[in-house]
Design a protein that fits this description.
The protein is an all-alpha fold. It is 58% helix and 0% strand. It is globular and about 40 Å long. The N and C termini lie far apart (47 Å).
């Protein structure tokens, strides 16, 4: 906020003849990612929070092997420079079913990957925190798996 009183805003010209002045007015509407106003975004956008809710909802219905696959993907994303999680992730790829359409789980993982890549680091950490609230044992396994990559290249 600029510190001007609202009555002052109404009297200030948006442009002067000698230079162009851009004012930033506080918005009563929620911020929309990609908007043209140069105002600070809230800590997490509505869209990101909805993406996280979807993933957490999907996670609740995933089987044990699906959760293990997600765990490997999450570890790979947490330590992207490590070779071991990448190799383990490659083992999960299957070429044998190339002629069949992807299953729902595979589509969910693709969306997860797309959304995760668009999140800021703080949002990624918030996702893990929310997952830990609902699935503390899973997140404990995640932290153990990340710790196990220390020193491995």
């Amino acid at each position: 906020m600029l510190g001007f009183e609202p009555a002052t805003w109404a009297r200030m010209p948006l442009e002067s003849s000698s230079s162009s002045v851009q004012l930033s007015f506080p918005s009563l509407l929620p911020s929309v990612p990609g908007n043209s106003i140069n105002s600070p975004l809230p800590p997490m956008s509505y869209i990101t929070s909805q993406e996280m809710k979807c993933i957490l909802h999907w996670f609740a219905s995933w089987s044990g092997p699906q959760r293990e696959r997600f765990l490997q993907d999450l570890v790979t994303k947490a330590v992207p420079g490590k070779l071991q999680p990448l190799l383990e992730g490659l083992e999960q790829l299957s070429v044998s079913g190339a002629n069949r359409p992807p299953c729902i789980f595979e589509c969910q993982l693709r969306l997860w990957d797309q959304w995760f890549r668009g999140w800021a680091e703080e949002e990624r950490n918030e996702f893990v925190r929310q997952l830990e609230v609902s699935e503390p044992d899973f997140v404990a396994k995640f932290y153990q798996a990340v710790a196990a990559t220390a020193g491995k290249d």
